Amino acid sequence: MIKTTKITTPLGEMIAAATEAGICLLEFSDDKIVNEELTELKELLVAEIKEGRSRHLRHLKKQLKEYFSGKRKFFDLPLVTPGSDFQKAVWDELLKIPYGETVSYHQQAEAINKPGAVRAVGSANGSNRIAIVIPCHRVIGADGALVGYGGGLQRKRWLLDHERKFSGKPVDISLF
Fold it and tell me: What's this model's pTM, rounded to 2 decimal places?
């Protein structure tokens, strides 16, 4: 069973989903692909989807509240991330990007020993189903430009600004 709930955040409503094993989805409810992602999860996990409660969803809500208040810099939630080995390597690398910092797609490709796979890394980042927790918003273009965020560049900008504000690191105004 995949249980879903809605979570209100400063950036808008999000849809969260979890199995008994952990969080499998966190997306902005206005993202055009959220229904496709839920259908894909239903097929990949061979599970039904039902609105409801779970301990993982409770922990996610609590940790998101702490994140948005600037008190949490790292999420410690069990995650369910079905995907190819390449996608999982990319998503695991996203989890290593420190709070308040950014890397380029090229740097991320190099970190997984696939320096020629910059576009494939971008595609795998785009297929990340657990926004914010798996911080694909921390990946930017090689020239420092804000590019490629399913939740929209306004939200990406807000998240990066929010993290820099609470990390104690100077905000790089060239990103804005």
Answer: 0.92
Domain with CATH 3.30.160 in the chain: 2-68
Catalytic, out of 111, 136, 139, 159? 136
CATH number of the structural domain 85-175: 1.10.10.10
Q: Is 136 a catalytic residue?
A: yes
CA distances from 123 to 24, 147, 152, 163 (A): 18, 12, 15, 24
Q: What is the pLDDT along the chain (176 residues), one digit of tens a residue?
A: 999 999 999 999 999 999 999 999 999 999 788 999 999 999 999 999 999 999 999 999 999 999 999 999 999 999 999 999 999 999 999 999 999 999 999 999 999 999 999 999 999 999 999 999 999 999 999 898 898 888 899 999 999 999 999 987 665 545 54
* CATH class of the domain at 2-68: alpha beta
Contact 146, 153 (CB under 8 A): yes
